[in-house]
Design a protein that fits this description.
Largest sheet of chain B: 6 strands, mixed
Helix content of chain A: 40-55%
Largest interface: A-B, 96 and 61 residues
Radius of gyration of chain A: 28 Å
Number of strands of chain A: 10
Oligomer: heterodimer
CATH class of the largest domain in chain B: Alpha Beta
Radius of gyration of chain B: 29 Å
Structural class of chain B: alpha/beta
Distance between the termini of chain A: 61 Å
Number of helices of chain B: 11
Shape of chain A: globular
Order of helices and strands of chain B: HHHEEEHEHEEHEEHHEHEHEH
CATH superfamily of the largest domain in chain B: von Willebrand factor, type A domain
Strand order of the largest sheet of chain B: 8-7-6-9-10-11
CATH architecture of the largest domain in chain B: 3-Layer(aba) Sandwich
Number of helices of chain A: 20
Structural class of chain A: alpha+beta
Number of domains of chain A: 4
Strand order of the largest sheet of chain A: 6-7-8-9-10
Chain lengths: ~500, ~375
């Protein structure tokens, strides 16, 4: 639905202000939708067309219930696409719409400029629509139940991708039968004059090499050669799948890679959008009569709950802190090494580089690097961050520490790998019987074993040979296996 | 490329309906799989709203390799000393990803009673009940079907009236984004009109009778309560209009309300005939069998005071009650004190009579089978 005149004018105004603030965004299309439509788009993760699957229905169910009960209202929904698409809720007040637009333009700027979004497909609306069509076609050919069951399995493995892979130089992945360790295949012979031959290349040395080669030949080659984090890729290449199954899996993998950067930049992205909207609104866009309403909305979005980090709040405060520090020159060796806190607090070299710095940050940082670099001791104390633990004695969650290093450590760990456990295929031919072994790189947090069991079932469906995962369970290294009929948990 | 005008919202909403329907089907499947557990679970009844029941379910979610939540802990923001508990009742979930993963909460599925009855019916293969004989009654009901331009103020259709006024004001240019006031003129007024309709109506009455003598303990009553809930649910889905009456008895019988029925505890002897007599009187007085489908349910632990009273019960049933009712159900709840003789007596006397159904409920897990016996005849 095209925007009515007043909103269209408002959009033009917000757009101009955003451009004045040097935001550099994709053109943005706003759709005015009622709440049922809004819930629908939200269930589809912002896209108008998705493949048929019950989990969207489940999300829809939850969203419409919480909306119906007045618990939550979706204020902003914007997708990374060129042009960006964003949604306005019919019946929201004008100041709400204004706020959403300002926020959305900052998101679009982030999508377009942040390096972590650089590899994403900017025509994802079309791509997802075509996925929907393809999957629909498989449904009519293979039957809805078949396809749904297989989709379920793929979706259970959705997080087993190498989220940092798109940013590394493309790995050359050896295909079957090629690149079988060229080194060591030929006998090395140093150059030597004939009379020196038996000294420089003594027969034992040659013999030894021959033996080593022979052994290497006998030993089956490692597969995969190095641990592989992109489990979905490995399955695509090596699992015994039918064509339509391979096609489905490829689509799910593509979608997983598309959505991954959003998980990597939640704090930075929301922080940036809030930082910019609050500037634009308070400096340029608000009428005097709207200030209170805006303040209420803004405060609502920034509210923190005990035991939770609000990415909007943490992000906006970090950006504000960065701007201030670079305006006043509060960084660098001299500042860091100053131990007089009073001097530090009033430190101001009049550098005025804050603006430049925040734009640089929005360009190159993701959540991990963002927090790692800019969460300082002073910031942590000012923002009253803490870590908490479950106390088995009292049966409550209790504040464990306010030490900034611990807070940071904890926060970084929860952000690492987009909040997902790091799991890689270490052996695709375990016991030389084509069984697959996954290894969980344990960093202090155990896996949910019950779910891991179920997930193995789904992995088995794709791999069709026994599957294993090695992980630490309460400090002990154990291997959970599934052979198609029973689960087994053994100590290693 | 999709353009703003090109997004087909109607089609989209339809598609989410398909996904939603599929999800509901999965939920129903899960409920059905665990129906016995749900039936035996008395807590369910406590969660009953007027039209719906919320059933706590294990989460329906796709399993993943993800972190266990038990170890808890994470990062938060706010006031408090080290060692202080987090805010009251807050259950932190996930770490830095507030709002990212929808649907992580335990699932509480709201199911309408109709749907629950449907699941029960499908799972136990209960036949639809055919109202007995040709005793259906037609009643005249009035339905609001249309609009007219004159009528009493109490039937004014405000929304339509306002819409007409709005249209008129916009067309005349007096109202727009700039503002304006909508004042309806008499020509805008719209009123509801109705039409009488004849509708077949089938009524049913359930008469619950329960032995509250000393030998019926809390657990026995709980079983009766649960079973009554499910019987209600099923019969309500079968009849448009249903009434429920409650009779308790020890040595004498009296009519009580629902709450008392399930909570009253008496002591003393047991004279079952007193309940049957009262039941018979209520039926005679208020529920002429030509117009009502009548369902007496009697629950007891099977102990009657004397053989003489049992004989009287049998006579009452044979001569008075049975000719009037759709079916007479007797549920015998096993208790440590009861002899369980009464069921044998009934079985012996009415072995070939389809109108009498007896069933033994050893414990909560037996409820499902008992319900199936009672309602499986489709009468």
């Amino acid at each position: 639905m095209t925007l009515p005149k007043d909103l269209a004018e408002l959009q033009k105004r917000v757009r101009d202000v955003a451009a004045d603030y040097k935001l550099d965004f994709f053109e943005t299309v706003f759709e005015l939708v009622d709440w049922a439509q809004m819930n629908t788009v939200a269930a589809y993760e912002g896209f108008p067309v998705r493949y048929p699957h019950w989990r969207f229905g489940m999300t829809y169910d939850q969203i419409s219930k919480s909306y119906g009960w007045g618990f939550s209202k979706i204020y902003e929904l914007v997708i990374n696409n060129d042009p960006c698409y964003a949604y306005l809720l019919k019946g929201n007040s004008l100041v709400d719409q204004k706020l959403v637009m300002a926020h959305v333009y900052a998101h679009c700027d982030f999508f377009k400029n942040n390096l972590w979004f650089a590899p994403t497909n900017r025509h994802m609306i079309d791509e997802l629509a075509s996925h929907a069509t393809r999957i629909q076609r498989h449904v009519s050919r293979e039957g809805a139940d078949e396809v749904e069951a297989f989709l379920d399995s793929c979706l259970c493995l959705e997080n087993l991708i190498d989220i940092y892979a798109p940013y590394a130089p493309p790995k050359r992945r050896p295909r079957e039968g090629e690149g079988k360790d060229a080194k060591g295949k030929e006998i090395v012979r140093f150059q030597a004059k004939p009379y020196m031959e038996s000294f420089i290349n003594p027969p034992e040395f040659i013999e030894g090499q021959k033996k080593a080669i022979e052994e290497a030949r006998k030993r089956p080659p490692r597969f995969p050669e190095r641990p592989e984090r992109d489990v979905l890729w490995l399955l695509l290449e090596h699992a015994p799948l039918r064509d339509w199954q391979r096609d489905l899996l490829a689509m799910i993998r593509e979608e997983a890679y598309y959505f991954a950067p959003q998980r990597l930049t939640k704090i930075a992205n929301e922080g940036w959008a809030s930082f910019q909207h609050s500037k634009m609104m308070t400096e340029k866009l608000l009428d005097a009569s709207e200030v209170v309403d805006f303040a209420e909305r803004h405060a609502g979005a920034m509210a923190t709950q005990p035991g939770q980090i609000n990415p909007y709040k943490l992000g906006i405060e970090l950006f504000r802190d960065i701007e201030e520090r670079w305006d006043k020159g509060q960084f660098g060796k001299e500042y860091e090494e100053c131990d007089d806190r009073d001097v530090k607090r009033h430190w101001d070299t009049g550098l005025k580089q804050g603006r430049e710095k925040v734009f640089e940050v929005r360009r190159i940082y993701n959540d991990v690097t963002f927090v790692d670099e800019f969460l300082t001791r002073e910031f942590c104390e000012r923002q009253k961050l803490y870590t908490y633990e479950f106390n088995p004695k009292t049966g409550r969650q209790e504040i464990a520490s306010r030490d900034w290093r611990q807070v940071k450590d904890r926060l970084l760990r929860s952000l690492a790998n987009g909040g997902q456990p790091i799991i890689e295929v270490t052996d695709g031919n375990f016991r030389n019987r084509g069984e697959m072994v996954l290894s969980h790189r344990h960093d202090g947090q155990d896996l949910d074993l019950a779910q891991a069991k179920e997930t193995l079932r789904h992995l088995f469906r794709l791999w069709s040979r026994p599957v294993h995962i090695e992980t630490l369970v309460e400090g002990r290294r154990r291997r959970l296996s599934y052979d198609g009929e029973t689960h087994e948990l053994v100590d290693l | 490329m999709l353009h703003a005008e090109g997004t087909n919202w109607a089609a989209m909403v339809q598609k989410i309906d398909l996904d939603h329907t599929r999800f509901r089907a999965i939920v129903r499947g899960a409920i059905r799989r665990d129906l016995r557990k749900h039936v035996a679970n008395g807590a369910l009844i406590a969660r009953r709203g007027s039209q719906t029941v919320s059933i706590p379910m294990p989460q329906i979610q796709l399993p993943r390799f993800r972190f266990g939540t038990n170890q808890g802990g994470g990062v938060g923001q706010g006031n408090g000393q080290v060692g202080e508990p987090l805010g009251p009742g807050e259950k932190p979930e996930g770490q830095a990803e507030a709002g990212e993963e929808a649907g992580e909460h335990a699932l509480e599925v709201e199911v309408s009673l109709d749907e629950l009855a449907k699941i029960l019916g499908e799972e136990l293969a209960l036949p639809r009940i055919e109202p007995k004989g040709r005793r259906q009654v037609t009643t005249e009901v009035h339905r609001y079907t249309g609009l007219r331009r004159v009528g009493p103020a109490s039937l004014r259709h405000v929304k339509r009236t306002f819409k007409r006024a709005l249209k008129r004001e916009i067309a005349s240019g007096r109202f727009g984004p700039g503002g304006g006031v909508i004042v309806p003129v008499p020509d805008d007024m719209r009123y509801r009109t109705w039409e009488p309709k004849l509708q077949p109506q089938s009524n049913a009455v359930i008469l619950y009778m329960m032995d509250v003598s000393g030998s019926m303990g809390d657990e026995q009553k709980e079983i009766v309560r649960i079973e009554a809930f499910w019987i209600d649910t099923w019969l309500k889905s079968q009849y448009r209009h249903i009434e429920t009456r409650y009779i308790v008895h020890d040595a004498e019988a009296k009519e009580v309300d629902e709450h008392t029925f399930f909570h009253l505890r008496e002591s003393g002897g047991t004279k079952i005939s007193s309940a049957y007599e009262l039941c018979n009187r209520i039926v005679d007085r208020e529920y002429p069998p030509q117009e009502w489908n009548i369902y007496p349910f009697h629950f007891s632990d099977g102990d009657n005071w004397s053989g003489g009273d049992t004989a009287r019960c049998l006579d009452l049933l044979r001569d008075q009650l049975l000719p009037k009712v759709n079916v007479f159900c007797y549920g015998q709840v096993r208790s440590t004190y009861g002899s369980g003789q009464f069921k044998n007596d009934l079985d012996n006397s009415f072995r070939d009579d389809e109108r009498v159904i007896t069933s033994e409920v050893p414990d909560k897990d037996g409820i499902v089978d008992s319900i199936k016996q009672f309602l499986g005849t489709g009468r």
